[in-house]
Amino acid sequence: MAIQDFTAGQILTAAQMDSLQANDYNWTVSTKTASYTLVAADKGTRVVMNAAGATTITVNTSLFSAGDTLFIQNIGAGTCTITAGTATVTTAGSLALGTWAGGTLYFTSASAAIFFSGSGGGTIPSSVDYLVVAGGGGGGNGTSGVENGGGGGAGGLRSTVTATGGGGSLETAFTPTSGVTYTITIGGGGASNTSGVNSSISGTGLTTITSIGGGRGDGTNADATGGSGGGGGGATAGAGSAGEANQGFAGGNGGSDMGGGGGGAGVAGTNGGSATGGGGGNGVAIAISGSSITYGGGGAGGGSVSASGGTGGGGGSTPAAQGTAGTANLGGGGGGGTGNGSTAGGAGGKGVIILRQSNGVVASITGGTAAIVGTNITYTFNDSGTIKWGA
Predict the structure, then answer these.
(1) Average pLDDT in the 109-135 region?
(2) How many domains does the chain divide into?
(3) How far apart are the two ends of the chain, measured CA to CA in Å?
(4) For residue 132, how far is the Cα from the chain centroid?
(5) What pLDDT, on a 0 to 100 scale, did the predictor assign at position 120?
(6) Helix (H) and strand (E) counts in the chain
(7) pLDDT by residue (tens digit) across 301-347?
């Protein structure tokens, strides 16, 4: 409830008394969706920013008095920065609030305030689970009269939940350090005949967690190793390339001018046949965000007959057409191009990183989204960003 003015001798109604008491437990909330300048009526209330892009909350003089407070919090995907306008604002933490960050703005005078970040205690999580998927490799291009391209390998997949890539053992969750900003890097998918880009989590005191980009399918450039290997080309019945241990599987071999399928995080790509390119290897189903989603499918090899990419975002191939792109944020490999028409391979899909903690202190993030799922909090990064627990 906003501050009210009463006159001497005024008798308060029951409703007014209830409202005064309620404000101790349920502050008046005003939600903003764009940059905002505080006004006097914000005293004693909760100002909530909910915007996808970067915003500011500006603090000016002569609106508040010594001892006045208000609470500022950010629930949007964009960073909200508390900005000193004509007033001064100091803090021991940060004035840049990521998603779900907030704190109390306390005025020491009409022209000066202190921002106390945090929502009142608690400890940071003792362990954080993760899924790190790299960008998928691009499918190999086809060359008329020579060969059909190999399928792109899926981006490497490392997980502490459900299963991990390459048939390996589950990874180990990490313990975050209070105040450390961790960098989240999302690898892009490779273009035609180009390998995908690594995804990673890095920060002070943490051994960088890296998933390797998927290998390119065979085309003008030979197929390559990667998180999952690229499929071999058909002209020489070339062997598919290997996947990274505990991240993905090898690509299939080319055969009879048909491209081999790109390796998936779950199984290897299949070999090219007499008329059909090899199918992309299937990905791995992971239930880190509340529902089971399959990531890391390999792209299909090009051929005279259409072929399917692996489950988990692998791109397919169609005669006389460019290979289908791998699915974004699943790390799928791109489908191979065909010799009929010398078509390009499909691009790989970019990767994704998902973190999960038990309910408790919420991290401050940029570039991602946060959600409560049962007794856990998940942070999903479809694009690069940062995450920090504590001040």
Answers:
(1) 84
(2) 2
(3) 29
(4) 9
(5) 43
(6) 1, 22
(7) 999 999 999 999 999 999 989 999 999 999 999 999 998 888 999 99
My answer on whether 189 and 298 are in the same domain is yes
Q: How many CB atoms lie within 10 A of CB 75?
A: 16
Burial of 200 (0-12, 13-18, 19+ CB in 10 A): buried
Residue 21: left if φ>0, alpha if ψ -120 to 50, beta else—which one?
Answer: alpha
Residue from 138, 166, 196, 351 nearest 267 by CA = 166
Residue 78's φ and ψ, nearest 5 degrees, are -85, 150
**Are residues 135 and 69 both part of a single domain?**
no
Instruction: Say how far apart CA 43 and CA 59 lie, in whole Å.
Output: 12
pTM above 0.90, yes or no: no
Q: How many C-beta atoms surround the C-beta of residue 172 within 10 A?
A: 11
Any domain includes 2: no
In the three-class reduction of DSSP (H, G, I as helix; E, B as strand; rest coil), residue 144 is classed as: coil
104: three-class secondary structure by DSSP: strand
Q: Are strands 88-91 and 101-109 parallel, antiparallel or unpaired?
A: unpaired
Average pLDDT, the chain: 90
Same domain flag for 151 and 180:
yes
In a domain, 6, yes or no: no
Cα angle for residues 118, 120, 123 (degrees, 5° grid): 85
Using alpha carbons only, give the angle 131, 132, 137 rounded to the nearest 5 degrees. 135
**201 CB-side CA count, 13 A:** 29
Give the Cα separation of 226 and 237 in Å (integer).
Answer: 20
DSSP sequence for 101-121: EEEEEEEEETTEEEEEESSS-
364: in domain? yes
d(CA 50, CA 97): 11
Domain limits for position 204: 124-391
Task: Select the highest-mean-pLDDT range: 5-19, 152-166, 310-324.
Answer: 152-166
- CA 10 to chain CA mean position, Å: 56
| Separation in Å, CA 229 to CA 13, 44, 85, 338 | 74, 59, 55, 19
